[in-house]
Prior knowledge:
Mean pLDDT: 77
Largest sheet: 7 strands, mixed
Distance between the termini: 33 Å
Number of helices: 21
Amino acid sequence: MNLSAYLTATVLLPARLARRGLRAGAWMGTTVLDTTVTGAAAVTGVGMNLATAPLRGGAVSARDMAREFLGGAPSRRYWRGNDRIWMEVRGLDTPDSPRIGTAVLAAVRDLPGVTGVQLNHALSRIVATVGDETPALTQLGDTVSGAENSVRAPEPEQPLDLPGDDVVLAGRVAALATTGLGLGVSVAAAALRLPQLSVAVASAVISADYQPRIRRLVEHRLGPESTDVVLATAEAAILTLTQNPALLAVNVLLRATLTAETWSARQAWHRTEPNLAPHAGDDHPPEHPHRPRSLPVGPLEHHANRSVVAAPAAAAVAGAATGDAGLAGTALIVAAPAATRTARESFAATLSRGLADRHRMLPLRPQALRHLDRVDTVVIDPQTLTPPGPDAVVLDYLRRAGIRTIGLKSPAMGDGQTTFDELHEPTDTTPDTALHDAVEQLQSRGATVAVIAAHAPHALAAADVSIGIMGDQAPPWYADLLVDDPATAWRILCAVPAARTASRRGVELSTGSSLLGAVLLLASIPFRGTEPLTGGAAGGLWIGHRLARRTLDDPLAEHEREHPHVDDAHRTLRDRVQQAERFAVALPGVGRVPIPTPEQTAYLAALAVLVGLQIIDWPVALALVAGYIVTTTGRRRPSRTPAPSTA
């Protein structure tokens, strides 16, 4: 790298930063408008559904949902279409499953108005076909419950939610509504200069919301959806009392993004259900899978494990040193890894929504998209492969992204077998068994495995991320994500590098915001305690959304060389700036000395100006420089993974 290129990149840096600022502003405006419209549609839909539930003989009312969200017994999930009712059956994942299934089928068949019924073990549902004399949903629910209780005593268990269920969407809408209400009240209270509580009182709620270990403890008691609603409501209330509109605004955007994801999944269910219902019967389920080893820890989990130890330690030290409980609470808030959560949730929710709306994906278990950043191996059913040319290019992209591709030895594949990193030797004539064996072997070696298959229930059930290809036969019910086009499956896997980037940047933002907060505490600079956390959470939200949108917008087809892409000029500018990061000067007797990147130069210059104007002291500036170096070291990579393409 020569000096002229370095100086050019430095001069172009302000333009680059300005463009990023404009893009961030445009993203903010379009996201607020988009999520407002989507949120309004979701609120209207759920409100009308709950309001008319008693008139329609609904099985779930607002009172039932409120009881569940407050820690009570979960309400029975259901979905009702034109002539079908999908009703939850409990206990199908226990040893009593055969007897429960038989009892429920017999009881439901005897109901007047039921013309047919099927049992689906994978989704824990019965699918009842009804005629003109439709039974009330409460009657159907009571019948199912009575049949279950005739086999075994009722036991508390977490339900399996489907995209069409009202409860999940109602919870997301409730969390969005309470957070939005808190934002409005907080802004009004601040404008009127009403008394406010110390922000340190919010430390317990913020820690429970953003610390994964603490959150899992609450989820074990309440369930994931109820925990989300309870913590969102509690955080909205406490932030309203402390008059913190900035963090509430970030939470509103996060809640709107999650609500939009759930609404899109619901629409995908309504669109896909007529094709699924004729094949709903699933009378021979695979055994409940047991992972041979625990799921490997990802970058976000590793950072969370460190922060869950560092946060109490920092609070204890601050409290013991000063005797100030408020300062100890502020230390807890500073250590909360907010950016890690917002980055992952924003990325996964935006990706899920885009895949559902634009590529007809049905996310049966959207939590699988939160595991994409850990996927390092993919097992592919040969039956899903189209002609080897296009798939070979995508497989090569996955390989260069650090994802191992595993296939099965099959004479029918011919030369296509050479495109895989490894071929698994089948020990059984059944492809499903061979794929399942490959998944278990890879998991026992510490891999995080994704599976793409059409008719492999055992392998799909055992995978960490499973993508099922729908066809003319029975749908792959045990898949996490259902798609009707193999190209959509490739697109999901091609999102793995972006998911890793979102997680890495979330960790960087979380670390940087915590270091900044620690510096402000040590320097005794007046601040409320949530400013670094709010900035990190907002940055994570923006980065996750931007990466997901970029992944959705990148075509799988390669651009023709005689038709340059519209972003080629931007990419050239970006490449020149990134090349400047590797600039170094050769000094006699010393060797090559790396020169700070343009971004680092601008950052250091800004700090020097602040010190020169005596806005901050030089010890604080040194601490900020140290934190910046820690968070940016290793962030850039000299080589870049090419965009996925097909010939």
